[in-house]
Specification:
alpha+beta, eight-stranded mixed sheet, about 30% helix, globular
Length: about 725
């Protein structure tokens, strides 16, 4: 299916000229889950239905590789009863914003933001209701033309059908009149799962052909009339400033127009401590990207280090974490159910181990970029950002232009993983365009991205757990230190162990950190599922059987963490069971081969994986096959769920094996893939088999759940194959691959 390539203004204009139906529907107020904003009670979807019965659809949800450009329209199209084969898709996702009485910026219509594996969940009821409303508008228009009762009509594949006579009218014929209809919400009927004809079936990504043939879909591909090309030589270390730079040499490069000094910008961050959002540097403004790159290289700058950042070392930080969790220092108590100390004093066995994870880089496939055209009273921003409302918010904050006068053209993102939640690359482009009074396109390099990353926080986690004479887990004490954030202690084994205590240390650090693929979930799971395995072996029990026992009794519990309302041990157990069944758990393995299992609950979804590995006598690791099961409620597009399960698990394996950023004196020293090792295709599992647990729970996210179990499953498999228990990531520090 070809893409139309329409931007927001072109889409509106073409819809009006075509005489088709541009659909506006009033639905109940939509509240944005991850921003304290109130949305309008008006809801608008853009579905242009042409007279020839073809459809142009603009996806209402951002896409950064999680396939929402396909899944969002599937929800809408199924309830509308559209013919999927007659739909073409606009390249861009138009952002429609509003402002609350308090001045907070949010989405006027659908929730465009993507993060926390919540894009489907937030829009599920909304998109289906919109589609069902549109379908009813078509029926009402046909009923008026035929002078029949609307209840006698049905819809199928973009037609309204009169069952008594077999007559039918196309949506294209009905669209213009249907657009004027008002439908009372009491008449809106959502389909039952059994009646879906688009959802629940394998569907290809709508722009797959453009992606694999290298068509310009991403922000880095975008062009803009009259835009100046900019690259910035940024301070490589946090807090550093320019000492000397050869500006004359840079200005001598043909095509270089101007150099601009960039001042560092700091602001309060998550835990109210001040963090540097924009680093000091020199912007090279040029006629072409090549000239900007050459000019940047010619600057040959030296830097003045910041005294406040000189002692920022990841290794020093990790040593401090170990010291904190090992001692009896007072920590912040997060949960304290039952009496952990009493359970420990009465234990038949007590295990006390410490697990470590380093700083992780995001390393998105597409380096950051942003086009900004800041005019006197309005602006246009072309960018791939996870939350378009934040883009307009940044323009208003930095220029005074009303956010509602900002046109945000959202490009497909070449990965995000939480890093495209940040605003540094937005702020630079906005500042430069506002100052130059011309449109600019700013492009980052890979080194820029890693040096200026907001890394996944590093963790040291000490876990003590006790077993009684029946090998039941009676006590669990999780004590951790990290650069920022909390713990995923609302996940299992919470609710499963009667005596359960968690606490953490807040350690001041100027090393920038931020959300990374299910923030804190992989780290938590590495500690919890490694300890669960260790308990099983101490009990001389099979690790899978031990987990089944831990999940008993199967029941749902209230979930107090972000991203879900309940957590169900029965649903988790089914994922363990399915993954183990596919792997033929318990079979006789070759010498030095082992199976490892781990599972986790992330933002409403349950995922478990088994991986088989071999470890040679020379301590060389080979990943063989993997099997994963997921319960994400109703599977809207099984094809994409399998895709996400494979990719997310591999990303988790990469983090487990290689993703360790080393910071010295406030600077990331391994700033590209020649020094920050990354998994090669030949090193990944040969095959990853996926089972999607079938049920009718509402759909939940898939982007982050498969990442979380990877490190623990791999570490557990290494132990099963070699007897080597590795408790510190990256695993490649302890084993060769």
């Amino acid at each position: 299916m070809a893409s139309t390539g329409l931007d927001r203004r072109q889409f509106l204009k073409s819809s009006a000229l075509a005489g088709g139906m541009l659909l506006s529907i009033n639905l109940p107020m939509f509240r944005i889950a991850n921003a304290n904003t109130k949305a309008s009670s008006d809801w608008c979807i853009y579905v242009e239905i042409k007279p020839d019965n073809s459809v142009v659809m603009a996806s209402p949800v951002m896409d950064m590789g999680q396939h929402m450009k396909t899944t969002g329209p599937m929800m809408l199209a199924d309830e509308m009863d559209l013919d999927w084969d007659k739909i073409s898709f606009a390249e861009h996702c138009p952002a429609y914003l509003n402002k609350s009485e308090e001045g907070e910026i949010g989405y006027q219509y659908s929730d465009m933001g993507t993060g926390g594996s919540h894009a489907v969940r937030r829009n599920w009821d909304y998109m289906r209701t919109a589609g069902a409303t549109a379908r009813q508008m078509m029926i009402d228009q046909a009923a008026e033309l035929w002078r029949v009762n609307p209840e006698s009509l049905s819809t199928k594949a973009s037609y309204v059908v009169h069952s008594a006579t077999g007559k039918k009218l196309s949506y294209g014929y009905l669209a213009k009149g249907a657009a004027t209809k008002k439908v009372d919400k009491s008449r809106i009927k959502l389909k039952q799962t059994k009646d879906y004809v688009i959802m629940g079936r394998d569907t290809y990504t709508v722009d797959l052909e453009q992606i694999v043939t290298g068509k310009p879909l991403f922000g880095i591909d975008a062009e803009y009339p009259g835009a100046l090309q900019v690259m910035i030589l940024r301070a490589p270390a946090q807090g550093a400033s320019v000492d000397k730079a050869n500006k004359e040499a840079a200005l001598a490069i043909p095509g270089v127009i101007k150099l601009m000094d960039i001042e560092a910008q700091n602001e309060e961050y998550w835990t109210k401590d001040e963090k540097q959002i924009v680093s000091a540097g020199i912007a090279v403004v040029a006629e072409s990207l090549w000239a900007a790159m050459q000019g940047k290289r010619a600057l040959s700058a030296s830097w003045k280090p910041s005294k406040a950042h000189q002692d920022q070392s990841s290794e020093h930080q990790q040593a401090k974490f170990r010291h904190l969790v090992a001692g009896d220092f007072e920590a912040k108590v997060r949960k304290n159910d039952g009496d952990v100390q009493a359970a420990f004093s009465q234990a038949n066995r007590l295990i006390d181990e410490t697990y470590e994870t380093p700083l992780f880089a995001h390393a998105c496939m597409e380096p950051f970029n942003c086009i900004a055209d800041i005019r006197e009273k309005d602006a246009t921003i072309i960018v791939g950002h996870q939350f378009p409302h934040m883009v307009a918010e940044e323009v208003e904050k930095n220029t005074g232009i009303d956010a509602l006068s900002v046109e945000v053209i959202s490009q497909r993102m070449g990965g995000g993983f939480g890093r495209r939640f940040e605003r540094d690359f937005l702020r630079e482009a906005i500042y430069l365009s506002h100052t130059l009074k011309q449109p600019v396109k700013i492009t980052w390099t890979r080194e820029d991205e890693i040096e200026r990353d907001f890394f996944a926080p590093a963790y040291v986690m000490r876990v003590k757990a006790s077993l009684d004479e029946n090998n039941k887990v009676t006590g669990w004490h999780h004590r951790q230190a990290q650069t920022r954030g909390g713990a995923r202690d609302d996940c299992f084994p919470a609710k499963l162990v009667k005596n359960y205590k968690t606490e953490h240390f807040e350690y001041p650090s100027k090393i920038p950190t931020g959300p990374w693929r299910g923030p804190a979930h992989l780290q938590w799971t590495f500690a919890v599922e490694s300890m669960t395995d260790e308990l099983a072996y101490q009990a001389n029990e099979d690790p899978l059987a031990f987990r089944f026992k831990l999940m008993q009794p199967h029941q749902a519990h209230d979930y107090e963490g972000w991203g879900a309302e309940s957590i169900d041990s029965g649903r988790m157990a089914k994922c363990y069971e399915s993954a183990a069944k596919m792997a033929k758990w318990g079979r006789k393995l070759s010498k030095n081969h082992g199976l490892g299992i781990a599972g986790h609950f992330t933002f409403g979804s349950y995922a478990a994986f088994v991986i088989e590995v071999s470890v040679s006598e020379q301590n060389e690791l080979t990943l063989l096959d993997a099997w994963g099961a997921i319960d994400c409620g109703f599977a809207i597009n099984p094809n994409h769920i399998r895709n996400q399960m494979e990719g997310g698990f591999i990303d988790g394996l990469n983090a487990a094996l290689f993703n360790k950023v080393t910071v010295e004196k406030g600077q990331a020293v391994n700033n590209n893939f020649h020094t920050l090792r990354w998994m090669k295709m030949k090193e990944s599992p040969n095959n990853i088999q996926v089972d999607i647990i079938q049920n009718n729970f509402p759909p939940t996210g898939v982007g982050e759940p498969p990442t979380a179990p990877a490190a623990a499953a791999l570490a557990n498999a290494i132990y099963a194959a070699s007897g080597q228990r590795i408790r510190q990531l990256p695993l490649s520090d302890s084993i060769r691959i």
